[in-house]
Amino acid sequence: MKKIKIIAVAMLMVSAFGCKEVKKNAEAAADEMEEAKDEMKEEVMETKTITFDMEAKSDSNVSGQVTFTEDNGSVVMKAMLTGLSEGEHAIHIHEKADCSSADGKSTGGHWNPTFQPHAKWGADGGYHKGDIGNFVADASGNATVDFATGEWCIGCDDDTKNIVGKAVIVHQGVDDYTSQPSGAAGARVACTGIIQ
Question: What is the value of pTM for the model shown?
Answer without folding.
Answer: 0.75
